[in-house]
Structures are given as structure tokens and as C-alpha cells.
Design a protein that fits this description.
This protein is an alpha+beta fold. About 40% of the residues lie in helices and about 20% in strands. The radius of gyration is 17 Å and the shape is globular.
């Protein structure tokens, strides 16, 4: 949970939408007990090393709603309900904070998903 909030961008928004604002104070707490060496974000400070929570590729895939569509015996495509972070970064919405433009985009996509009119 903390790692998703720390990730920022669309992943942050999806976590906030799913978990709610009442989980935000946990982000301000110190590094979670779930952070273990080489599985999270490495933060260096001089000769000190700290580990913090990070998301695995599988966790990001899960949050973005990734799944496979089989087209035939030898071919399948990978799609997701939400763009992956690298795609989010190219949309022009990654401006370092969650802007009104980001929120409008998110709410529009969410509305389309809820109405069943989104296309991957």
C-alpha cells in the first residue's frame, strides 16, 4: 500500500481511489517493515543505505488491470484498463503533481470504464 502511494502519478491515483484518503497518513510514517533489501527502492545517503517500499512489475501490472487476450493458438496480446507508468509519462500528464488536468483525464476514463465504453 505505501509503495503504491509513493510511486506517484497514475499508480498513486489508483491507490487513492481504491483505498481512500484515510490511508494517506501511513505514507508519512517511516519505512514500512515490509521493505527488505533488494526488493524495494534503495536510498543512499553518504555511507548509509536505506530501503523503502517499491512496487514489483507484477504489482504494477495488477494495479493497471493488465490481462491477456488470446487471438489464436500462437498469438495473444497484452492489454490493460489503465496505462502503465511509462505510457503515463508520455501522455503529457506527468507534471510532478496531480493536476486538475490529470483528475479530469482520470475521471473521464473511469466514467468510460463504468459505462463500458472504453477501448484498450
Amino acid at each position: 500500500m505505501r509503495a503504491a502511494f509513493l510511486h506517484g502519478g497514475l499508480i498513486w491515483c489508483l491507490a487513492l481511489h481504491s483505498l481512500g484518503f484515510n490511508h494517506l497518513p501511513s505514507v508519512l510514517n517511516s519505512i514500512s517493515t515490509e521493505a527488505v533489501p533488494f526488493s524495494g527502492l534503495l536510498i543512499g545517503n553518504g555511507d548509509q543505505t536505506y530501503y523503502d517500499n517499491g512496487l514489483s512489475e507484477e504489482e504494477i501490472d495488477f494495479m493497471c488491470g493488465m490481462y491477456y487476450i488470446d487471438h489464436c493458438k500462437f498469438y495473444s496480446s497484452i492489454v490493460s484498463w489503465w496505462p502503465w507508468p511509462n505510457a503515463w509519462n508520455t501522455l503529457g500528464l506527468n507534471v510532478g503533481f496531480w493536476s486538475a488536468h490529470c483528475e479530469n483525464w482520470f475521471q473521464g476514463c473511469l466514467g468510460n470504464l463504468q459505462e463500458g465504453v472504453s477501448h484498450m
